[in-house]
């Protein structure tokens, strides 16, 4: 029994924001322009992105609302009525509320009745985990269909006032992601039979390496590396914030590992016969930055398992890096705008730097009845 | 610029060596001393212990490389030249390490009188044994791991140690200097891939020796916390 992605959807809030407009939207920290912005933007190659937050720092769409709008977009193109959805599998890095699970909030926004619910939590790979949970559920014949949604509202973490509350000027690791991440949501509908031109899921495989590496992307640790407290260990949340424990940080020193582990998993999948590089027609890789794309590309070329430039597809440069939603927003735009023929193979790759989890998926383009 | 690997066997060998290297990096990440370094809980004593245990292997490094060179016969004269050049550049490395140890506050006599730990014994014995075989093509795997580590030290560990011990290079010259050479050495190894991988058996032997070297190297570092 096979599982198919029969519809996709996306939601990107507001108008695209150009590089020159970013700082006005996020705010000047301590009234001063960032000295790192240009360098980081040059390296990641992103030209435009979307924010669910206006220049006064009012949230224009909640995270659950964005997820629901992507779900609506997906279902509006499907042969299925929303009332027929059986399973909702949702992913995000940070929901609007700490509790309950993100899925509950998204279900309410979507107005889906009597569904089974799954929420997966993590960073970029959490959407792939949500997708795998839905895929295996259908495989196990627990359900006939599933709606998978992933959404991110990272911009809330990037308000100038957040950095000011942590005192002083932000260090490189705390500021890095401010010029990388943005907001948006994506959705897939999974069914047990193909409909029209759609994608069969051949397999989804993940390799997590948290046992061998320290954390690389975090919220919850204070700025002082010697302070081992979690944000929840402080007497008040105000103290945690003052200690920098609510800032989103990337330990850039460790980032190179994500390139190596991305390549490592790919080589493993070649060894196990899951991937045949010469048969990959389209590669959709969620690299967070153009810099990493060229590193991965060079390494694969040298080892004789490269995938030629024209077969790579990404909309990172125009839609931004929306964390776990990226791969879904990417496949959605690919489906709508890129030629793909029945029988073609699509390889999706999501290396997550949080504590190093890399997830891969292979799709085959199929043509079912409408 | 890294030399291009052209042959299919050479590329297959490279893929395996990359995977063994990535796995080795994960093994290193699980070694208690290295995990402390990565987490930022590494002090000067840890560094002295690292050098103390390391020296016993570094001092023997010149020997297994020279042995490897001398085990290649005339058909591999070109390979022999590359390996001899490599041995020549490294056989006084331990003197730099000794100076670093003293600069870090270590006692030179203690360093010189220290015994090899269990991992070092095993690593040295294995490398000398393999290096003594006729035309030890598989030693490319051992050199891949050892040179790769040298590069990792220079590009990653040296700076990390300097940050954590609040020093500025006065006690990390072995790591830095060694790594500068190893960049060049690794390129020479890339160039050897097409030359040495002539059959599936060659590729298999190179991978096996790389894997064993990596495991024993990690064991050597694990032993630091057992001593």
CATH class of chain B: Mainly Alpha
Mean pLDDT of chain A: 96
The helix content of chain A, as a percent range, equals 25-40%
Oligomer: heterodimer
The CATH architecture of chain B can be named as Up-down Bundle
Distance between the termini of chain A: 19 Å
| Shape annotation of chain B | globular
What CATH calls the topology of chain B is Heme Oxygenase, Chain A
Strand content of chain A: 15-25%
Uncertain segments of chain A are none
Q: Largest chain interface and its two residue counts?
A: A-B, 23 and 24 residues
Q: Provide the CATH top-level class of the largest domain in chain A.
A: Alpha Beta
**Total number of helices of chain B:** 10
Distance between the termini of chain B: 41 Å
Which structural class fits the helix and strand makeup of chain B?
mainly alpha
Report on this structure.
The complex is a heterodimer of chains A (370) and B (227). Chain A folds into 3 domains: 3-191, Thiolase/Chalcone synthase (Peroxisomal Thiolase, Chain A, domain 1); 198-213 and 251-367, Thiolase/Chalcone synthase (Peroxisomal Thiolase, Chain A, domain 1, 3-Layer(aba) Sandwich), CATH 3.40.47; 217-250, no CATH class. In chain A, α3 (63-76) packs across α4 and α9 packs across α10 (290-302). In chain A, 31% of the residues lie in helices and 22% in strands. Chain A is globular. Chain A has helices spanning 19-26, 37-44, 63-76, 102-110, 126-139, 160-165, 172-175, 237-242, 256-271, 290-302, 316-319, 326-337, and strands at residues 3-11, 17-18, 48-49, 87-92, 116-121, 145-152, 184-191, 197-208, 217-218, 249-250, 282-285, 312-313, 345-352, 357-367. In chain A, strands 5-4-6-7-1-8-14-13-11-12 form a 10-stranded mixed beta sheet, sandwiched between helices. The model of chain A has no long low-confidence stretch (mean pLDDT 96). Chain A has 12 helices and 14 strands. Chain A is α/β, with parallel strands linked by helices. Chain B is mostly helical. Chain B has one domain: Heme oxygenase-like (Heme Oxygenase, Chain A, Up-down Bundle), CATH 1.20.910.10. Chain B is built from 10 helices and no strands. In chain B, α3 packs antiparallel against α4 (77-90) and α3 (44-70) runs antiparallel to α5 (93-103). The interface between A and B is medium-sized, with 23 and 24 residues.
